[in-house]
Every structure is written in C-alpha cells, then in structure tokens.
C-alpha cells in the first residue's frame, strides 16, 4: 500500500484536519505498527487505509490500484477482497459458531457456498482453533475470539491485514498469543498493519510509524536513519512540527510523552 | 510502481450478495431473537388472520345463500292454506278449480294442489289385495292434482303421469316413486300392476325415478286430488299446499297475484311464499358489519406494520456493529438494505402464513359449530401471505434505508 500526499480534512467550519497530507509506503510482507495516543488521528488513518473513508487529497494506491478513482461500489469491493480487518471489539456474531463467523467474510465476495466452509476451517486451523470449529463466541476466551476474528480476516485471502487495537480488550496472556499469531502470519508473508497505542505491541513490528495530531511520522531504530536511505516510506510531516517526534526517536523507539493520555 | 488506473475495464470484481445468501442471512437474523421475532410477527398474524377469517366467513354464508337460491327455487312459489287461522269456520282454502284458476295467470308453467292423505293406522299400501299374503308397506299417500305432479318436473322410468281427465273422473290411478316400486316388487308396467291402499285398488300409471322439486314424490304413492277427496275426504286444516312452477323472473309477481286469483272472495285465506330476493340477500351479506370488520383487519395490518417497522429500526440501531462489520467485509449499502428488507419481509410473510392458517381454522371452526360448509376462496389463501409479505417489506423500507446510510467507519466504533 502506498500513500502519496494522502490527507483527510472534514469540511468546516472550522475545517478539521484529521489527517495531514502524508507519504507512507508499506511493502508486501511488511509488519508495520502505527502508534499514537487517542485522538491523534489513528482512527482516521485506519478508515483511510481500510477504504472505509475516502481521503480528500492525495493518492492512495492499494496493490497498485488508484483508490481515489474508484467508485463507491468498487472501493467497497476492493475493501472486501483485499483488506482483512481485525477489530478491538472482535465484532463476532454472537449466535453463530466460529466457522459460521469466518464464513461470513466470504458472503459478499462471491465465494461458492460449498467452498466457504472448507476455507473457513482452513483459516481456523491456521490460527490454531481446529478444536473450536463449532463453538459460539460466548464460549470462547477473549484470545480465542480475536483469533476467530483473525481467521475471518484471513479467509478472504486479503493482501493487507489491518488490525485496530487487536489486543485492546485482552489480558496480557491472551494479548501475547494474538501478537505471536500476527508475528507468525507476518513471517509467512502476510502484510500486517497494526494500529495501536500500546508500545509493547508496536515493539513486535518491524517498523513503527507514529501519528500525532493528525501528523504521520516515521521513527527508525537507532541504527536505521543513516543506513536506510530515505526512499519509499519516508514520512513527510508538516514543516513546523517536524522536529518534535524526531527528537524523541533516537532513544529506543519509545515515545514516553505519548503514553501520558493513556 | 505501476499504477493501475481503473475504468480500463474492471479492476475489482464487484461485491455480490446471492439471493440464497440474502435469505439465509435474513433467517439467521430472525432466529437471533426468536422471541422478539414472534412478537413482531404477531401484528401481521392478527391482521392477516382477521382478513382471511372475515372473507372466509362471508364466502361461507354467501354459499349458503347460493345453495338456497338457484334457478329452481327462483321459479318456485308455494301457496299455503291458512284459511283456518283467519276464520275457524272457513272451509278448505283452495277451491276445487284451483289448478285451472292459477293456470290462467301469465308466467305460470305448471301448478297444482297437493297434500299428504291421512290414512287409518292399519291402512297400508300393498301390491296385492288384503289377505293375499303380501306384506303391507308403510308408505305415504299423497293427493296431488296433475299440475302438482308436473310442477315437480318428474322423470318417468316407465308409464306416464295421470292427466286432467283421470282427475276429473276421480279415477283410481296412481303414480309411484321408484323407491316405492322397488319395495312393492313392481318392476314393470307391462303386466298392468295395481297397488292396494287399504282395500282400494289403484292402477299404476307411471313410475317416477327422479324429480327436481318435491322429493317426497319418490317415496310416496300419488293419487289424483279428486280421487283422494272422494275416498278419504278433504284435507285437514292447513295441510293442503299449492306448488307453482313459473317462468324465470315471474315468481314474485305470481306470488302477489296467486291469492286473489285463487280466492277472489277471501284472498287472505291463502299465503303465497315467493322465492327469496337475491338482491336483498346480497345486500345483507355485504352489509356494514363486514366492512367494519375488514376495516378492523386493515387497522390490525397497519399496527402490525408499525410493529415490524419499530422492531426493525431498533434492531438496526442495535446491530450497528454488525452493519459496520458487513460493510468492512465488502457489503455495499444496497446489500444491507436487501438484508433488512428480506428480514422484515420474511417476518411479514411468516406472520401472513400463520395468520392465514389461523383464519382458515376460524372459518372451519365456525362452520363446524353452525353445521355449514366452510368456503374459503383460493385467491384469499394465496393473497393473504402475499399481503403479509408486502406489509413486512413496506414496514422495512425506512429501517433498511437507515441501515444502508450508516457509515461503516462510524458503525465499527460501536
């Protein structure tokens, strides 16, 4: 996925710059964390990256497709086929079994009915829930629920796994298993973008992008800035505020001040 | 990076929602809250049920009128002898030349006086003289003028009816019903058989095997009125009646004229019973009461629709998260609309089906109690569930539209 000067401004008065124009490129197979405190524009980033909201400026390329030029219907179709969502609140249907919940992701993408169950079971096996095919969400632990949700995202065979605070509702033990699972998926070649306010989660990612007051900026590991020449994926923050996040960056990749609101 | 521009053909295969999926999603949605679904459908059940029951009961009572009112009854006038009720010293109401008098009226086809003869307790009908060993059969003997026989429109198996000549001479002839013939062992008229009423022999002129009016002819021995009067005397008070078969449409007028034509001196001694007027009957059926009930059924349906609309709207608000999820999974706004419309439509259709069943049961129950034939028009049975479906769909329009307008980004925050 690639952001080229993508920004989102809600028309006023006064206009709200939910996401300032920014540049970001995520390559196939990358594991990127987008961190920021609440109210920083994380949700807006999620909505734009997840094609739930159209940016007001710039170009967003997903799998090389210019999403700005797409009609509403096509954008919806692209979202259903190329993006797998994992939500903080799981969003599982309470009266349907794990398998049926996973099958739901294939209803709108014209997967033949016969194939859905097999694919759903495959996805559940992949997240380690082979023994929980017929369990209702109410009978599953939080970690298991989130794994069902991940299986649902995987069953649609997306090119991008977009996770919104995937561990926000989980205790540390369950959070660990879910994060380990995301790590495994990344290792097997899946492109994963995790949006979180939790630095521990971000630490698992190969790359961390910070968002603050609608401004996207990338921090690099201490050794990164020199070695990795600014090419694709270098964030371009607005000039006046440029220094602030960068100044914190060299320490250990952890933004102490940003934890305050939480 | 190569940028793929859309519009040069489809880049993405569009989202779809197969009809079967829409239906199974709707059913799943209904079954999520079965109790609530039942309560929601109740309004439609009541509305459609009332609708079917009213139309069914109307059809049932109408069919009773239809069975009472057909071409035969429409051309039939009965004149009763009520002379003794008017004046206890009055003689028989019908004059001796009653048949000839009524025959002069325009529109009369056949007419005649008849009554059941009162025989002594030990008088029976036999095929052989008393003491000949043949057993008597208890059969009614009916005194009937030739016109009364013809007015019954008989179909003769053998022989003929007795005529005015036989009647004027008071001859001992008889016409018997096929049933009576069988019981008396009379199979052919070739042998000129006779029946004995008490000790009196009567030549059998004909055997009737079917009639359109006065089915009693089949079960009895008919003899000319004059013969009966000669042998057993005049009829008792109020026993004699006159049957008049008229041309189509003449019945009511003849009913007005008959008493005067028969007894110009005392028309009040006779009472003519005309066939029921179809117009007044119909008017009675499609009366105000019916329209009131149909109005009530309509109100029930509207309440049912409002109930469905309300519940669906609440469900839409409750299921915002689900809507967001579906949108994230690639559902378009119209897919959400279709899903909720299908759900409310299915609720309405189920309510309509249950209501139809209950309405039909009501009609059958009422008909059973009243000993009627239940009649429900097939179109009503077919239309009622469709009305339920339509109610559900109409009720779901606004909530479904609301559901499709929910922004996925907003919805997912729930």
Looking at the overall shape, the CATH architecture of chain A is 3-Layer(aba) Sandwich
Domain module count of chain A: 1
**What overall geometry of chain B do the principal axes of the alpha carbons give?**
elongated
Rounded to an integer in angstroms, the radius of gyration calculated over CA atoms of chain B is: 37 Å
Average pLDDT of chain B: 85
Q: Could you tell me the strand content of chain B as a percent range?
A: 15-25%
| Count of extended strands of chain B | 11
* Oligomerization state: heterodimer
Give helix and strand order of chain B, one letter per element, not per position. Answer: HHHEHHEEEHEHEHEEEHEHEHHHHHH
Tally of separate helices of chain A: 9
What does the model show?
Chain A has a single domain, classed as Rossmann fold. Chain A is globular, with a radius of gyration of 18 Å. The C terminus of chain A is likely disordered. A six-stranded mixed sheet of chain A has the order 6-7-8-3-9-10, sandwiched between helices. Chain A has a four-stranded antiparallel sheet with strand order 2-1-4-5, with helices on one face. Chain A is of the alpha/beta class. In chain A, helix 4 crosses helix 5. Chain A has nine helices and ten strands. Chain B folds into two domains: 178 residues, no CATH class; 205 residues, no CATH class. Chain B has 414 residues and is of the alpha+beta class. Chain B is built from 16 helices and eleven strands. The mean pLDDT of chain B is 85. In chain B, a hairpin with a 2-residue loop joins strand 7 and strand 8. The two termini of chain B are 37 Å apart. In chain B, strands 1, 2, 3, 4, 5, 6, 7, 8, 9, 10 and 11 form an eleven-stranded mixed sheet that branches. Chains A and B meet through strand 5 and helix 2 of A and helix 1 and helix 13 of B.
């Amino acid at each position: 996925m690639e952001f080229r000067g993508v920004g989102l401004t809600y028309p006023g008065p006064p206009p709200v710059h939910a996401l300032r124009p920014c540049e970001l490129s995520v390559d196939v197979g990358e594991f990127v964390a987008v961190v920021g405190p609440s109210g920083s524009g994380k949700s807006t980033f999620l909505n734009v990256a997840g094609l739930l909201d159209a940016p007001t400026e710039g170009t967003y390329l997903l799998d090389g497709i210019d999403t700005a030029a797409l009609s509403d219907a096509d954008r919806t179709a692209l979202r259903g086929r190329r993006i797998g969502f994992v939500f903080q609140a799981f969003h599982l249907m309470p009266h349907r079994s794990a398998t049926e919940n996973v099958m739901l992701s294939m209803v709108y993408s014209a997967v033949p009915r016969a194939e859905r169950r097999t694919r759903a079971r495959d996805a559940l096996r992949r997240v380690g829930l082979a023994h929980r095919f017929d369990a209702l969400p109410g009978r599953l632990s939080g970690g298991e629920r989130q794994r069902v949700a991940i299986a649902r995202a995987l069953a649609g065979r997306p090119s991008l796994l977009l996770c919104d605070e995937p561990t926000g509702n989980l205790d540390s033990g369950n959070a660990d298993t879910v994060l380990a699972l995301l790590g495994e998926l990344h290792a097997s070649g899946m492109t994963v973008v995790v949006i979180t306010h939790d630095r521990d989660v971000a630490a698992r990612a190969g790359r961390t992008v910070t968002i603050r007051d609608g401004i996207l900026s990338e921090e690099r590991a201490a050794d990164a800035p020199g070695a990795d020449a600014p090419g694709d994926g270098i964030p371009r923050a607005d000039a006046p505020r440029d220094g602030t996040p960068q100044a914190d960056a060299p320490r250990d990749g952890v933004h102490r001040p940003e934890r305050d609101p939480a | 990076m190569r940028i793929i521009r859309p519009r040069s053909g489809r880049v993405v295969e569009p989202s779809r929602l197969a009809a079967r999926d829409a239906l199974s999603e709707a059913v799943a949605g209904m079954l999520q809250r079965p109790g609530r679904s039942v309560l929601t459908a109740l309004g439609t059940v009541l509305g459609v049920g009332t609708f079917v029951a009213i139309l069914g009961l109307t059809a049932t009572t109408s069919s009773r009128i239809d069975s009472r009112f057909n071409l035969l009854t429409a051309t039939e006038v009965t004149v009763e002898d009520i002379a003794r009720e008017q004046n206890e010293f009055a003689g028989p109401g019908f004059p001796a030349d009653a048949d000839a008098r009524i025959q002069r009226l325009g529109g009369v086809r056949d007419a005649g006086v008849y009554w059941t003869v009162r025989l002594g307790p030990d008088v029976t009908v036999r095929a052989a003289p008393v003491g000949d060993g043949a057993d008597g059969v208890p059969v009614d003997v009916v005194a009937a003028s030739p016109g009364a026989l013809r007015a019954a429109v008989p179909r003769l198996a053998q022989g003929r009816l007795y005529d005015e000549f036989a009647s004027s001479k008071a001859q001992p002839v008889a016409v018997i019903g096929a049933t009576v013939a069988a019981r008396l062992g009379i199979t052919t008229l070739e042998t000129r058989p006779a029946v004995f009423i008490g000790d009196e022999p009567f030549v059998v002129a004909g055997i009737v095997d079917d009639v359109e009016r006065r089915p009693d002819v089949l079960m009895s021995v008919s003899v000319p009125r004059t013969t009966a009067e000669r042998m057993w005397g005049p009829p008792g008070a109020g026993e004699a009646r006159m049957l008049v078969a008229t041309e189509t449409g003449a019945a009511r007028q003849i009913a007005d004229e008959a008493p005067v034509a028969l007894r110009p001196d005392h028309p009040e001694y006779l009472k003519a019973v005309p066939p029921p007027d179809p117009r007044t009957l119909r008017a009675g059926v499609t009366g105000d009461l019916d329209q009131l009930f149909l109005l009530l059924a309509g109100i029930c349906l509207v309440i049912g629709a409002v109930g469905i609309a309300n519940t669906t709207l609440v469900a839409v608000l409750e299921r915002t998260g689900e809507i967001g999820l579906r949108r994230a999974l690639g559902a378009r706004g119209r897919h959400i609309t279709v899903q909720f419309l299908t759900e409310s439509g299915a609720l309405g259709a189920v309510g309509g089906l249950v209501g139809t069943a209950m309405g039909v049961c009501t009609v059958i129950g009422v008909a059973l109690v009243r000993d009627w034939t239940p009649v429900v028009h097939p179109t009503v049975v077919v239309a009622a569930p469709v009305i339920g479906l339509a109610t559900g769909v109409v009720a779901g329009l606004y909530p479904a539209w609301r559901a499709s307008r929910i922004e996925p980004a907003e919805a997912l925050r729930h």
